[in-house]
Amino acid sequence: MAETFYSVLLCVLGAVVLRWSVSLGPYSGKGKPPMFGDYEAQRHWQEITYNLPINQWYYNTSDNNLLYWGLDYPPLTAYHSWLCGWLAHKIDPSWIRLNDSHGYESREHKLFMRYTALGADILVYFPAVLLFCLLCIPGKSRPHKVLIAAVMLLYPGLTLIDHGHFQYNAVSLGFCLWGVIGLCMEYDMLGSVAFMLALSYKQMELYHSMPFFFYLLGKTFTINSWFGRLFYLSKLGVAVIGTFVICWFPFLSNPEDLFQVVHRLFPFGRGLFEDKVANVWCAVSVVIKVKNILTQQQIIKLSLWSTLISVLPSSLNLFRHPSVDRFVISLVNSSLAFFLFSYQVHEKSILLAALPVCVLLPFKPLPCTWFLLISTFSMWPLLEKDGLVFSYVPAMLLFYLAAYHVLNLGKSRSRTKGMFYLSVLGALGLHLAAATVKPPARYPDLYPVLISVYSCAHFILFFMYFNYLQFSLPYFPNMLMKSKQA
Question: What's the whole-number mean pLDDT along residues 214-243?
Fold first, then answer.
């Protein structure tokens, strides 16, 4: 027991040191008025939620200009912002003074913001990763499980975005992982509560919603009696609806307030994708400008149907065969389908696919390590813009070396290793070309576009691979986590 405690402590300390090292660097929009970046967005939400009454948080008013980083995440994010704002006000009220603090930057405030991101990791994400590895991975010793947790916590994509660029993705991803743990341990009600917390923190958790829904629905039909099915569904309904009501309660008394929040969460007027995201629509736009051919409503319908068609096979397979291993792989397939085909996708949304891939690391080490490296590479244009070059390189190397030794990547099939190293060489070649060869004046975004297309091609192939893996499970029933379900 003492050995496990000390190994967990070392694992956590190592993850904290990595995050703190990254946090010493710059952040999104540093010194770049008038909009700055995501760092300012998070600070501004603290300003708004602390200083304004709750019924004004999502409305455009003289004190809340929604065009200046208006709040566009669900209530749990707003409550978190209020808590951080309350702490900020206790330390230095000027950090969140209404209307007068826009673009506020100082060494002390940066330290405070970095502490809040680290605290969110330690309170929500770290325990979820450690408990998943200790409770849900069969056939490994405890020390080895802790090492696997360390590899998961070293994933560079999440670290660079949350502690470099600056966001709180670890909160929603942590809640989602708590949901996965609940379902793995057959505490389905607790798992449902945890996932509803994730969804009430960030609406992008819809990427994971289909597997949760179809797994629990499919499990319902494994119960023999109709009474048992109704009782099970009733318990799930109480867990889901109860969590929703608690999180959204301040906005439920007035339908207009609720509709305004929903309107802010789904801004269809923004466009099909953001910047140079590595999804299908961005890659296609190199050849075909979809927005010049179709109306906005047609584009929304196209992305909706494309997403549904790509996610349904995995979801229906999970419904017919509701097992934990198939559920986790379906999380990858669902989130990749949403990332590749849905509307209004950001570069950072690949983190939603990276979470279940991290979960699969001990079961499919090389493909998952490969995916996680490419997912971080796909965000390079954003990370470079933020000045995180000197954090990106060591974080990537550290993760690869840790995965190589802990997960025994050297024992993978030679053909797979060959493809992996060719892929890495291609990514390195793009990095080298971008650093040494100036793009033509006619194509200033040449390298970000090439990186996006290169990464998108990988994600499409990974999407096919993980779908194949899920549909092959009946032939390999013990390949992943042990489950009581058929």
Answer: 96
